[in-house]
Structure formats: C-alpha cells, structure tokens
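Allow me, if you will, to draw on your knowledge of protein folds for a short while. The matter concerns a single protein, recorded as an amino acid sequence and a row of backbone structure tokens. Could you please explain, in whatever detail you think fit, how the structure tokens follow from the sequence? I remain grateful for any guidance, and I place the record below:

…
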Amino acid sequence: MKLIVGLGNPGPQYEKTRHNMGWRAAGALVDRLGGLFDHEKFKSDYCLFKGDRFPDPIMVMRPLTFMNLSGEAVQAASSYFKIPAEDILVIFDDMDTEVGDIRLREKGSSGGHKGMQSIIDLLGTQQIKRIKIGIGKAEKAAVVDYVLGKPSKEEAPLIDEAIERAVDAAVYSLSHPFEETMSRFNSPKAK
C-alpha cells in the first residue's frame, strides 16, 4: 500500500490558508481519482483506492490533528497497514519555495515545517518522499500570521496551478520511480 498525506489544519477557518496547501492537494487528488474522503480513523479522514488502476492500493489521508501533531495520524495509519516509510509521500506548504513553484525531495530534514517534523520524529526517519508547494516568504508579517493567512489575489492563481502540478506529480509517482518523478515535475529553480 502507498500512503499519500496532505498536511493542513482542520476546520473551515484554515481551509484557504497558506498552511493548508497539502490538504487542498489531497482533496484535489481524491477528486481526480474519483474518490471520497469516506473513512475516518487514525486521527484523519482518508480515501482508499484499490483495483487495477495502480500497482498498489493507495490511501490518501488528511490528518485531523493540528499541523504540529500530523505525525500521530501518519504513524497510526502506517503502523496499522504496515506501510514502510519509503511508500509514504507527504504534500505540504513551503516558505523556502517561491509562490507557484513545487519542489520534490526523496528525503531530508523538515526545513522547519512543524508538520513534517512531527512525521519525521514519530516515524524515526528522514527518508520520506515529499512534494512542497511554494508559498514564499513572509516579508513583513510574523511567520505564524503569514502561514495562517490567505494568499493574495495575485498569489491565488499561482498556488492553484502549483496544487494541480503537485497532484500531477503524486499521480505520476504511483506508477514511476520517484527519481523520475522529481526530474519531470520539480520547478526549474528547485532542481
């Protein structure tokens, strides 16, 4: 089984914030694959895809914990379904990536992202694939205010496009090596 996790915060007040890019991407992925978030367990809601469309069953998850506890949901599901870290892909927002760009990595530190750090801590490894959706840096606002704020009118269409490219990359990765996926989908400045 493959596990794709979209990070965000639960609740309508966070829905369109910069910090919920992973949640939005997970929703767009489930829509594209023709599913619904019709299961709630492991401190998350999730959708399972089984059948002949992909080599392995797929679980797309949105943790229902707050961002800094995301690892609790991922660890619970990966433990229950015996999903190794190399079969997990996490999608989340990234301040070090320009607005509208995406950056794929096979492993590494959290880069200061609290949700990703929680997952690394609870799984005990940095060997976790990820797709980062660029939200850019806070120019004047405090980091918390920036990530919990909504994108500007100028940023919104760029972020929408980046989410679609992140979904394209996630789908492609289900039937191709991740190294090939990175080569194909990393934004030019992210390579």
In short: DSSP finds six helices and seven strands in the chain. The chain has a mean pLDDT of 91. Helices lie at 21-33, 70-81, 114-123, 143-147, 155-173, 178-185.
